[in-house]
Design a protein that fits this description.
This protein is mainly alpha-helical. It has 24 helices and no strands. Helix 1 packs parallel to helix 8 and helix 2 packs across helix 6. The C terminus is likely disordered.
Length: 506
Amino acid sequence: MTDHDEGVSTLAKQGSITFVGNVVKGVLGFAIVMLMTRFVSPSVYGLFVLATSVILFTQILANLGLPLAIDYFVPQYLDEGERGKAKGVIVQVTATVLVTSSLVALALAVSTARIGDFFGEPAMQIALLLLSVTIPMLAIYKVLLTSYYSIKKLQYRVIMRDLVRPIVRFVVTAGFLLAGFGLLGLIAGYVIGLFVAITVGSIVFVYKAWDLLTADIELVAPGPLVTYSVPLAMTSVVFVLMGQVDYFLLGYFLSSDDVGIYRVGYMLGSGLMIIFNSLSPVFKPLIAETRDDTVLVEQRFQVMARWIVGITLPYAIVLSLGASSYLAVLYTPQYAAATLVVVLLAGAFLFNVTFGGPDGTLLQGLGYSRMVFVNTLVLFGANLLVSMTLIPFVGIEGAAIGSATALFLVGGLTLVEVYYLDGIHPFTRDFAKVVGAGVPATIAGAPIVLFVDSDLVIVAALPIVVIVTFCLSLIATDAFTDEDAQMIAEFSPTLQRWLPASLLNR
């Protein structure tokens, strides 16, 4: 076998940790939404989605991006042995975001009536008033997450973010909904889940970072913190606004019912992000550390692109063919109205994450941060313009077309930019074999949807037929490479034994 790139092993090892967390979080997230859609109407669920979208947007403004300074400056100070300054960064950021987020929360609380009137949803006033307390809580939550990044303890981030918060939220929400609290039950689950996660996360961080926290504090100049954080905060504002703009526009032009139905479709379609979200935290530093070695950067880009498309393509095929059945079975038949939303977004997310992701992970790793900001503006602008134009005429499908257009546009831009600037691309014969395996998988899965009447049977049988056909096609075309064997070995030696003997003997 040829010499291995150790970066591929790192990608597999660290990616597997975040992958497990993302899978658990994703499953629990789907379970929470399934619970909500069975106990409250689409209008109540849509109202909750609209209110939390406002909260998520305002909290980005409230923390000024300062938590992002922690996992940039703290590792540098720790590497230089300046533990007092590392502690100073954490303390200064925490104190600052507590003040700014509390002021923003107060401002939001006194503005709830106007916001409710703007969206034509009077009940939104109560939801925002109760949820406003989560703005400073979310700021501390972000501080804890970046603090874990800074001391390289990602497994504890998984505990706090991917286990404790969704589990507590599910249990609390279920209890309140069974007691008949409706919208108040959704809010209680959200607030209590966040509070418990922060409590557990704080205790674990104090225990694991005791040496750092007991060091004599040495305050650092605030200028560099702000200079680094604010541009990233502006990028985050645009990026988060892009993610929430569909809900804002739907809430303005249509009703909360439509917001709820669209949210379910969007969540199902965006499930394709799970592999990308698992690999991107590792992929970015792997690209950054070898950015001057164009050959190695291209090799790593090609490996990641092939793995992302290889795992997400079968999922996209299953969702595109069986969207109506999955929506009806997982949520309720009334949510099948989001079928076209799922189909459009599944294709768009597949294309986008294969070529660098909506947040420009590849470009970030190559050092083109300004280009990432410009692409984010393009992403937001395209989504806003198309959605505003189409929603009044075609409803929730207009919002889906807007998001899909933006995702395809930015994915294409990323491909053009990295090829123009560094001459790299992901297209190889092996990549084409993986994409080509989707053709027989789609052909095999189509009859299941066309000739089977039961949604339950479709939900159970479709993924089996598609995935088995896809894997057999990969084997038939000898689509596995040395890098694939290396990554599979890191994930599981058992899986490695299933690879063709010809590959293992190279």
